Every structure is written in structure tokens, then in C-alpha cells.
């Protein structure tokens, strides 16, 4: 077989020559897989492997995509053929481990990943996959230990993925010590940058109290001060933020945008409007003035301010969304839909808002048609829409079907991880994920109700009853309230 040097996943290896035709299909397959479109990925990889290259990587990826698209029999046949043709290939062993992982066959998956480490000692892919398997089975401490051990002894340039996995795991667990270690392992970081990075990551992942502590030690640049104040506010320190803004008069925050944003967050609308009066008029200023008036409940004046933001400006889409919110608050859904019709409909936020308007009008199907269920973020939008409509089983199924990792919104990431775990029968691990998230974000009432439901399913009757009783005190949404009452009634019969 003709072999050539090539770069795969950042590594130079010798493998079969791949024709340009097969390579193009391979790239298309990876792109489809990354977007969660596994059926399309299968077709692309089938076309790539049609050429007689006998390539271990192509066969392995085809087997994985067969599995993810639901065709387990073809996955097994393709993997068996790959093992016969390439018995010593780490790609084949990695695919075998991932397929076992997908089937919740923990021991077999870990054994396969250990085999990959033996075949390719420098790779971080089997270490990350092993950690994911341990987290899914409810052993995050062991996963952290494996990642730390790998990173501590690896000077391998490809270990960034393992470090990112360790960072994500530390943030999900609220483990400040491990987070600090993971950041310190970055060879490019400086001591001055570590506190800022730890704080920013914690803030982005729903850990505002930890973020405020980390950022308080960071250098006092305008960007760091603004981040610290946002973290302080989100962790319940409204009075401290107000005191800082009052005593410093906004000095140290940089431009007016951060100052106005913080003033609005703590409810100081008049002070924010006073600041805006001193700024040269612009679309950004008009949008900020509209936000202030909207918070103050002056919907007509807010709508007028948002209408001043011209098409083509950076604030236009946000202004159209806010203008729709003004119309909705005034009981004018038609005007809200009209405002959104002028915004670009490739925007997910615009379609989500429009779907919410349709739902209020009793037109759920029209809202559902706005989204492509083959795309992960649109699956998330569908899940949220089903929840608001009271179709909770459908919502859980859509959350579980989301395949993207590293989701930017921490609440969405928590729901996706929890529903994946629950769909595979790992109720305790799913409960742990939602428990951590709802402590950080008690206002996420849908997550709190789902946590009660999982506790009841796991026969934790007393805990489910107590959590449900507390959640019921703050829930006003009729569909969600009725669902929680039904869960509690079923739970009380078990008692």
C-alpha cells in the first residue's frame, strides 16, 4: 500500500494516500458531524471510503457516524473490517472506544481508550474521551485526576484539548483548586493573566461568586474592573456595585457603555439617562436610552428610541428585538411581529422571539417551523419552545439529542448534559449536574422543576417533595406550575 506523511489532528503520521475526491468528502463529513447532522456525515464518509484507499481514519470515522446516526449493525461491521485491515491502528481503537461510550458500555470503552494510549502515547483524545466516560458514569473526581496526571507529565503540544476539558470539568464542579491548576498549566499564561482568566471562565460558566473572588486579585484595568463588577452583581452584591459606582463616579470602567450597563442592572435608570444625555447622539446611544426607558416601564418612549436605530448599524438587530418586547408588553403582538419582520431572519434570536409570539397566540406549529431540528442550537430553541408550551417529554428528548460540546450558555450546557445522562439511565449523574446549576441559577425554574422530576424518578421522595414545594412558591407560569403539581402528586402517592 502506498503511504505518505500527512497531518491529522495536529500530528504528522504515515497513512494511506487519500485522493482529492475522498479528501473533499471527508471534510464535508466532518463538517456535517460537527453540526450534529450524522445522517449526512454518513453519506459523505461512505463516498470518501468508496475510493480504494484502505484508510484506517476514514473507516473509523464512518463506523462512528453509523453509530451516531442509529445504525449500530453497520457500525459494528465497518469497525470489524477496520480491525482486520488495520489491527494496530490507534484510530480504530479510538472509534471502538467511542462506540462503546455511546452505548454506555463503560468498562469496554475505558479498555479501548487505554489501548489507544498504548498505541499512541502522545495523544490526548483517549484521555479526554476516558474523562468524559467517567463523568457520564458519575465519577468526575476520577476524571479530573486522570486529566491532571496527563497534563502534569505531558509537554505534548496537542494537550490543549485535555486542558480545556479539565477547565470545563472544574467549572461544572465549582472546583476552584483544579481550575487554578488547569490555568497554571497553560505555558503561555502569566501570573497577572491567570486571575482574570479564571474569573472570566467562571463568570461565563455560571459561577459568579467564584469569578468575583478571582477578579478581585486581577490587575485593575478597566476591563477587569467591569468584569469584577458584573460578577459581583450576579453573585448578589448589588449594594457593593452601587457603592462603587457612587463613590468612584464610574472612574476605572473605561468608556460609558460599561457604566450605563451596570447602572441599568442595579436599577439606577435616572443616573443612566443622565450619563446618556452627556454623550454625542449615535445608534448605540439611542439603543442604550431605549433600554433604560424599557426598564423604567415607559414603553412608548422606549419604542421611539429603538426606532431611531437605523438599519445596518451594529445595534439594529438588538433594537428590533427590544422594540418587539415593547409592543408585546403593550399587548400588541402584531406590531411585535412587524418589528421583527424588518430584522434578518437568519438570526436565531429573532426567530426565537417570533416563535414566542406565535406561542402566545396559540400557534405552536408555526413557531416550530421556524427552526431546523438538524442543527444543535436550533434543537435547543425547539426544546425551550416545547417547554414553554408544556410538552416536557418532547423538550427533554430534544435537549438529549444535542451533540455539540462546549456550549457557550452555561444553563443550556447543564440541561444538555443532564438530559443526555438521564436518557441513558444515569439519573444520579443527571441530578448532580442540575443540582449544581440550580444552586448557581435559582431563577432557572424549568431546570428546578426538571430536577424535582429526576429526583422523584430516582425514588428520592423526601428530597423531591421539599425541592418541589420550594419551587412551587415562586412559579407563576401556568404550564410549568401544573406540571410540577402533577409530579408532586405522583411523588406523594409513592410516599
Write a structural description.
The chain has 495 residues and is mainly α. Among the domains are: 103 residues, Serine Threonine Protein Phosphatase 5, Tetratricopeptide repeat (Alpha Horseshoe), CATH 1.25.40; 91 residues, Alpha Horseshoe (Serine Threonine Protein Phosphatase 5, Tetratricopeptide repeat). The protein has 29 helices and two strands. The protein has a two-stranded antiparallel ribbon with strand order 1-2. The N terminus is likely disordered.
Q: Which secondary structure elements does this structure contain, and how are they paired or packed?
A:
Layout: E1 3-8, E2 11-16, H1 20-34, H2 38-50, H3 56-68, H4 72-85, H5 90-102, H6 106-119, H7 125-136, H8 140-153, H9 160-173, H10 176-184, H11 191-204, H12 208-216, H13 222-234, H14 238-248, H15 256-265, H16 269-277, H17 283-295, H18 299-307, H19 316-329, H20 333-341, H21 348-360, H22 364-368, H23 376-389, H24 392-401, H25 410-423, H26 427-440, H27 445-457, H28 461-472, H29 478-494
Antiparallel strand pairs: 1-2
Helix pairs in contact: 1-2, 2-3, 3-4, 3-5, 4-5, 5-6, 5-7, 6-7, 7-8, 8-9, 9-10, 10-11, 11-12, 11-13, 12-13, 13-14, 13-15, 15-16, 15-17, 16-17, 17-18, 17-19, 18-19, 19-20, 19-21, 20-21, 21-23, 23-24, 24-25, 25-26, 26-27, 27-28, 27-29, 28-29
Amino acid at each position: 500500500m502506498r503511504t505518505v506523511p500527512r497531518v491529522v489532528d495536529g500530528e504528522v503520521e504515515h497513512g494511506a494516500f487519500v485522493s482529492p475526491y475522498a479528501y473533499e468528502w471527508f471534510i464535508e463529513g466532518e463538517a456535517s458531524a460537527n453540526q450534529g447532522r450524522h445522517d449526512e456525515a454518513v453519506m459523505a464518509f461512505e463516498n470518501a471510503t468508496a475510493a480504494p484507499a484502505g484508510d484506517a481514519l476514514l473507516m473509523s470515522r464512518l463506523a462512528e457516524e453509523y453509530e451516531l446516526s442509529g445504525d449500530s449493525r453497520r457500525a459494528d461491521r465497518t469497525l470489524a473490517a477496520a480491525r482486520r485491515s488495520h489491527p494496530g491502528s490507534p484510530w480504530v481503537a479510538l472509534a471502538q472506544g467511542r462506540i462503546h461510550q455511546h452505548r454506555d458500555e463503560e468498562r469496554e470503552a475505558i479498555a479501548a481508550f487505554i489501548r489507544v494510549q498504548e498505541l499512541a502515547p502522545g495523544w490526548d483524545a483517549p484521555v479526554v474521551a476516558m474523562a468524559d466516560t467517567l463523568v457520564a458514569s458519575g465519577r468526575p473526581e476520577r476524571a479530573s485526576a486522570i486529566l491532571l496526571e496527563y497534563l502534569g507529565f505531558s509537554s505534548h503540544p496537542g494537550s490543549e484539548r485535555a486542558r480545556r476539558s479539565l477547565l470545563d470539568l472544574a467549572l461544572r464542579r465549582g472546583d476552584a483548586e483544579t481550575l487554578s491548576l488547569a490555568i497554571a498549566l497553560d505555558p503561555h499564561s502569566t501570573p497577572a493573566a491567570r486571575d482574570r482568566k479564571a474569573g472570566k471562565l467562571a463568570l461565563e460558566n455560571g459561577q459568579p461568586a467564584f469569578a468575583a473572588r478571582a477578579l478581585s486579585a486581577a490587575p485593575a484595568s478597566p476591563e477587569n474592573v467591569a468584569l469584577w463588577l458584573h460578577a459581583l452583581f450576579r453573585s448578589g452584591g448589588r449594594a457593593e456595585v452601587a457603592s462603587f459606582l457612587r463613590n468612584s463616579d464610574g472612574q476605572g470602567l473605561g468608556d460609558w457603555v460599561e457604566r450605563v450597563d451596570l447602572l441599568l442592572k442595579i436599577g439606577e435608570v435616572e443616573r443612566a439617562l443622565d450619563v446618556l444625555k452627556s454623550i454625542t447622539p449615535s445608534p448605540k446611544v439611542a439603543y442604550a436610552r431605549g433600554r433604560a426607558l424599557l426598564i423604567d416601564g415607559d414603553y412608548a418612549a422606549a419604542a421611539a428610541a429603538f426606532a431611531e436605530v437605523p438599519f445596518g448599524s451594529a445595534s439594529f438587530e438588538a433594537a428590533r428585538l427590544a422594540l418587539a418586547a415593547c409592543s408585546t408588553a403593550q399587548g400588541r403582538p402584531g406590531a411585535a411581529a412587524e418589528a421583527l419582520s424588518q430584522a434578518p431572519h437568519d438570526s436565531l434570536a429573532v426567530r426565537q422571539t417570533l416563535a414566542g409570539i406565535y406561542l402566545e397566540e396559540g400557534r405552536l406549529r408555526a413557531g416550530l417551523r421556524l427552526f431546523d431540528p438538524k442543527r444543535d442550537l436550533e434543537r435547543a430553541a425547539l426544546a425551550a419552545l416545547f417547554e414553554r408550551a408544556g410538552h416536557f417529554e418532547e423538550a427533554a428528548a430534544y435537549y438529549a439529542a444535542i451533540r455539540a460540546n462546549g456550549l457557550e450558555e452555561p444553563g443550556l450546557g447543564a440541561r444538555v448534559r443532564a438530559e443526555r445522562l438521564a436518557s441513558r439511565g444515569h439519573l444520579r449523574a443527571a441530578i448532580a449536574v442540575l443540582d449544581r446549576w440550580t444552586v448557581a441559577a435559582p431563577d432557572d425554574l424549568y431546570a428546578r422543576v426538571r430536577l424535582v422530576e429526576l429526583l422523584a424518578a430516582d425514588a428520592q421522595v423526601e428530597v423531591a417533595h421539599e425541592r418541589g414545594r420550594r419551587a412551587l412558591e415562586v412559579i407563576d407560569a401556568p404550564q410549568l406550575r401544573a406540571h410540577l403539581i402533577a409530579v408532586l402528586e405522583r411523588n406523594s402517592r409513592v410516599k
